[in-house]
Amino acid sequence: MSHAAPSWLTARQSGALIHVSSLPSDTGIGNLGDGARRFVDFLAAAGFSYWQVCPVGPTGYGDSPYQSFSAFAGNPYFIDLAELVEHALLTESEVSELRDLPTDHVDYGMLYHRFWSILAKAHRRFDPQTFALPHGPSFHEFYETQAYWLDPYTTFMALKGRFGQRSWIEWPVEFRDPANIASLKLNPAEIAERSRHAFYQYVFFNQWARLKRYANERGVQIVGDIPIYVALDSADVWSRRANFHVKADGDLDAVAGVPPDYFSETGQLWGNPLYDWKHLEKNGYKWWIERIRSSLELFDVLRFDHFRGFADYWVVPSHAPDASEGAWETGPGISLFYAIERAIPNAKFIAEDLGYINETVFNLRVQTGYPGMKIMQFGYGHDDNNVNLPHFFERNQVVYTGTHDNNTTQGWLDTISGENRQKIFDYFDLNDNPIAARIVQAAFASVARLVITPVQDLLGLSSSARMNTPGTSVGNWQWRLDPETFNRLSEDFTSTLLALHLRYNRVDDTQQRDYSAPPEPAAELTPIPNS
User: Could you report the per-residue pLDDT of 183-201, keeping only the tens digit for each?
Assistant: First the structure.
């Protein structure tokens, strides 16, 4: 592995961050249809080269994309139902039940009660012998290729249905043991449920492949997010128990989290099971390699969330009330990434090396050669000569104004208080006009090869547009880019953003896009008022 910048990160480029769920649509949640393609068109026209999303797996209680029922499956909520209407698997009147759901946020409760019954109707009309979606494998070809994860996942979801959606650790003991999976006798309803979930995955993967092709043809690559941990209540833990420190009955002696930090005074108690890294190393990290190879079918670049956990990770006793009680243990280190490189050479990765980073974590990232991350909002608050200030940035880095876990940059500016407020306002020249656009511009002007900006910051939206507040379980993951605001973004901001790319040389000439004679730009990005 090289210590130099990776070959994919040699040009000055930029990207935008918005999760699929936040895209505009008229069915209650963003999907892989027209809204996603229109967003790609906006990115290409405005000069962006990357679109970053959060994890796209199926979500359960809490709706967090970082707590999924599978590290391999896609979220059926993201299926474009309009295409199923076109193929006569649904009727327009059936889909119309979703039309009165909100467009500015996701009402997961209402969505849950309406969406699944509609999608089940599509499956009842689906004939795998005669039906095939365009530009992809048949259903049987898809199932055969993906069976290594699809078999246990569909069985897991069928049994969750049988046992009232409860976690597998609450199932009867004979259904908890992965050794019994092959011999489980499913009833007809469960067999039908397995078939339904397989159909959902077939549609999701087909639609995603076509969206990715659409984006790539327009010079936009998709950045995916790999959470370091998986949920306890997941097909991965249920069916591949040996990879995790989980007792036979599902109990845990210790769980994952992070110590007190910028986001929380008591740390973050994630509750995920910890890996048995010794077992994983003995089998050549097979599960991790399968996971990454599968993810690279969906994404062009992968971001390792909580990269520091591969160097050392925070272990919290399962009985602890919060994450302040814990201890560091040694992770797999460079051996994992050597195994990945041997199995999947030339893959593109970003290391989320945030938090309190020690020398071990720093050296691991340098060994891998992966670009690390810098957050503009972290420039002040930890120490005076903070490495998150732009004049300390390096080329082999990915700079964000904020992430899905931060307040919006405008919300941050509106709420800064104390001694750091004047430092921040002086540094970013905000005293006359404290707007997020100044922070965005400073990120674009930096030496970092890649800048990724949340769409909320491009729009200058306030705290009401925040996506997630770590350490809380209510009100997260709901924000959406409603159609009216998206129209204003694409109509009013495209030329200004393109001018910003050209000014700071963040247009990738290899994409051969036509940027001739862009319209005269506005002096600054003018915030769109919150509706």
Answer: 888 899 999 999 999 999 9
